[in-house]
Specification:
By secondary structure, the protein is of the alpha+beta class. The chain contains 15 helices and 24 strands. The structure holds flavin-adenine dinucleotide. The site of flavin-adenine dinucleotide has 38 residues, from helix 2, helix 3, helix 8 and helix 15.
Length: 432
């Protein structure tokens, strides 16, 4: 690659290099170019936006329909720093940008409060984003892996690439993502680069990843899904004291996989497990209420049903899938019993299995299947108004490399668009 000249020497428009051509990097490129900068995106894989292509089951859930920052995002950094970043661009304005400037028609999925492209095509999202960048003159260079950054005496930065070449710019945006889905090009190189230059990195862990564990009664329920599960996660200490407080995934989908569990309810709480396993802290307890119905509702059903009903048929009648009803009855030792025959202790045990089933897990699927990475560069080390590093002047950070991720529902792309915009706009301005 030919070295680029710094604007201070060449008197040209400020130059910005974006390392990483994912959702955050392309957004940063768009906004830096809009400010008149010469923008180059260095992407290590063969094409930009590969993760956009595989997202949301190739439909790409681009945004949520509503946001509550405290409820929907996870960070170990300061909540006020997080709020300050979100205050910079409302969901409504971000949606308008996707529609009007990127040219993406959006459709809602009301039951899940999500926005998707009306075409249901993640390829359209990626192509329109790339098209909007190239229309503004952004140069996208693929198969360009940034391995190191070094500061230049004049104030700019040099990127050293894997093939031994170098390129220089007035400012840099680091948008290299996290460690999740490494086959998409994300292996934590960005963390290593900025970590080596003085940033502290909050210990990372896979998030939104399936859990491994044994199905009820040791049966094989793979492929079975439920749609209104309440999953409760209590920290080990709170659970030991019998406290109810904890995190909850309410009325969302749950899937039995070949090796354990997945679906939004499990993914949204998985970070509590992965974090504890990575850090060797006490493991939280997960409890499932399979239909989201209360204990009192089940008690009333048991009282009202004819005494001659078999226990599994009562569970099936009220919506429990047959295979799960059979597994739960087997585990409670009531498979061949009629309702009238149940002793009080058996009823209580059954009620617990229906509404507070202790989900056994012994591991997780790791970064290979994690949708995002927890941990990363703490928000205290970036200026939340500009995303400029407080450690490395004229280096801006955005997207998944930062110590923030959201739950399932378009929250992670919202974070990528939001921080990409701030980083790109201000990377262009930081030279002035
Ligand atoms: C299967 C799956 C489905 C998902 N579905 C959704 C969804 O529907 N909605 C949602 O909101 N979120 C979803 N996500 C999460 C979302 O994809 C991420 O939050 C988002 O892509 C993060 O954007 P980013 O630009 O920060 O990182 P990435 O998209 O990971 O982009 C980083 C880019 O940097 C490149 N790179 C890395 N290191 C270097 C280097 N050293 N030099 C050059 N280039 C480098 C990588 O190749 C990559 O292209 C999903 C994730 C996965 C894995």
């Amino acid at each position: 690659m030919r070295p680029r000249f710094l604007s201070s020497v060449s008197k040209a428009a400020p130059s910005v290099i974006i390392t990483g051509g994912g959702a955050a990097g392309l957004t940063a490129a768009y906004f830096a170019a809009l400010q008149g900068s010469q923008v180059t995106v260095l992407e290590r894989t063969r094409e930009p936006g590969k993760k956009v292509l595989i997202s949301g089951g190739a439909r790409c859930n681009v945004l949520p329909m509503e946001v509550d920052v405290q409820r929907d995002f996870v960070t170990e950094s300061s909540p006020s720093a997080l709020r300050a970043i979100f205050a910079s661009w409302s969901l409504e304005d971000c949606k308008r940008w996707l529609e009007d400037d990127i040219g993406l028609a959006l459709a809602t999925e009301e039951e899940n409060m999500k926005y998707f492209p009306a075409s249901n095509s993640s390829r359209e999202v990626r192509d329109r984003l790339v098209g909007a960048c190239t229309n503004l003159g952004v140069r996208i260079q693929c198969k360009a892996s940034v391995e190191a950054l070094s500061s230049l005496p004049g104030g700019g930065w040099r990127c050293s690439l894997g093939d031994g070449s170098h390129c220089e710019a007035d400012s840099i945006v680091v948008a290299t993502g996290g460690l999740s889905f490494p086959k998409m090009g994300t292996d934590g190189t960005g963390h290593r680069i900025v970590g080596g230059l003085g940033h502290s990195i909050k210990p990372v862990y896979p998030a939104l990843t399936p859990l491994k564990g044994r199905h009820p009664a040791g049966s094989q329920l793979a492929g079975l899904s439920l749609y209104g599960v309440d999953l409760h996660c209590a920290a080990a200490a709170a659970a030991a004291k019998g406290k109810k407080k904890g995190q909850q995934a309410q009325r969302s989908a749950f899937l039995f996989t070949h090796r354990g569990y997945s679906g939004p309810s499990v993914l949204d709480l998985s970070h509590s497990v992965t974090m504890a396993l990575e850090r060797g802290t006490p493991l939280p307890r997960l409890k499932a209420n399979w239909l989201g119905d209360s204990r009192a509702e089940w008690e009333a059903r048991m009282v009202a049903c004819p005494g001659s009903s078999s226990v599994p048929s009562l569970l099936r009648k009220h919506g429990l899938p047959q295979r799960l009803a059979e597994a739960i009855c087997a585990e409670a030792g009531v498979s061949d019993r009629r309702m009238a025959e149940l002793r009080k202790t058996e009823r209580v045990a059954l009620l617990e299995k229906l509404t507070e089933y202790p989900l056994e897990y012994d591991g997780h699927e790791g970064y290979a299947k994690a949708e995002v990475t927890g941990g990363g560069v703490p928000l205290s080390e970036v200026d939340c108004r500009t995303m400029e590093s407080r450690v490395l002047p004229r280096v801006h950070l955005c997207g998944e490399i930062l110590d923030v991720f959201g739950r399932i529902g378009g929250f992670n792309f919202y974070w990528a668009w939001l921080t990409g915009r701030l980083a790109g706009m201000h990377a262009a301005q930081s030279v002035e």
